[in-house]
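Limitations
The structure tokens in this dataset are predictions for the assembled complex, not deposited experimental models. Users should treat interface geometry with appropriate caution, especially where small molecules or nucleic acid strands are included. An illustrative entry is reproduced here so readers can see what is and is not provided.
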Amino acid sequence: MSDLHVYDTTLRDGAQQEGLNLSVTDKLAIAAHLDDLGVGFIEGGWPGANPKDTEFFRRAQTELRLKNATLAAFGATRRAGGRADSDPLVRALLDSGASVVTLVAKSHVSHVERALRTTLAENLEMIRDTVTFLRGEGRRVFLDAEHFFDGYTTDRAYALEAVRVAAESGAEVIALCDTNGGMLPAEVADVVADVLATTSARVGIHCHNDTGCAVANSMAAIDAGATHVQGTINGYGERTGNANLVTVVANLQIKQGLELLEPHRLAEATRISHAISEITNVAPYSRQPYVGSSAFAHKAGLHASAIKVDPDLYQHTDPKAVGNDMRMLVSDMAGRASIELKSRELGLDLDGSDEADAAKVAQVLARVKDLELRGYTFDAADASFELLLRRELNGGLPDYFDVESWRVITDSRGEDDALSEATVKVFAAGERVVTTGEGNGPVNALDHALREGLSSAYPEIAHLELVDYKVRILDTEHGTDAVTRVLIETSDGSTTWSTIGVAANILEASWDALLESVTFGLIRAGVAPRRG
Ligand SMILES: [Zn+2]
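Predicted assembly:
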């Protein structure tokens, strides 16, 4: 394995993207995916400056079990004129529990004087004091030199001095930031080479994509000797985004032979990129290099028959290396390997070694592809995928209850907020139960009515809680004929799971996802069907 750092800043810099809003739960889920991808470092946010980020680090300590990655807390050097050991924001970085602290510091004279409004000497002292203090507290320290490239152009000596001071104080990496994103690859390479020649720093690179060169600039920096690369999943970030970390890593690994991620983890990149899109609710960019659904798609015709002869004639690399697929729309969870792996996890015992197993896997695969054509996606609906496997491989699901009917009405009176009321009729434990539920929206009302209706047969589900609800309209060129995809996340207080529903009608899609959620909750709790 290469010792080059793969440093993800999706949760901090990526979250600056317009329209992207992450809850703490979303951030924890994304961090788990990043860890599965095998990145070395996950920057979780700025504890102390942002209450949500403080909460993220607090919950991460108990809820996130990282296998590969190390969490990094981001924060600024101490205030001008103060002391690091009594600075509340520096304290918050220690309190976050993160073993790596990434400090952002100024290295551009105009930013020091006009934005920070302090002296050039005091800025260097802020770097020295803060890095030294955090090192003394046992933290690994990385330093993001903000506006470095522009600062280097304005005053090379000062920019280099900031790097030197940080390195001599114990910062392990100095990441040179193209904060305004205006650089081109050749310039980046020259500056990185100069920093390496004139300081003792380990150099990292942090690029924004304003010239469309964030990936190229990151690659140029690494060619010039940088050994730490920062970026975000799907290139999320302010303005035109940050360097797309998956593209950078795939380029380095597949084209240049640097092993940054274990190959079986890189082969999860497509699935993970899409799963994270479902969490951010930002539609996946189909033309994204390597992992986009069009990245290896070919038009039919002349091409197609030649592709059958030798696919390598028409693709720059094997799509399987990044978990993508040629020609087909990506079938993320549907890979044979995922099906075998998941079925083993569930104790359904499919090792794929004999013909009967192979036939079952093929049957599940066909089912998944069929559902995907209708708008389902299983990358972000782990519980629905598990139910599908149980249905296909285990001869069906436990028969907990039957639904006779449901309906929901929403009315608005005068100035008051609209209220919804649902009626659900179910058979469970030998009884027919009719219940109503109210809610501030129709799905909320249906959820209340359904769980109320099942509560005497299955008191185990009383504490389930709907914690997130996401809607996406698919195939919008058909206007109102579009189908609606609903993703629901449910919590039992200690774990969460996601289910999916797809239908032309948004309430029907929501209802299907609710039923799956409750069924999964009962299976998870080990409850046997009570038919009365
Ligand atoms: Zn940035």
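Some entries come with short summary sentences. For this one: The chain has three domains: 5-261, 297-374, 401-524.
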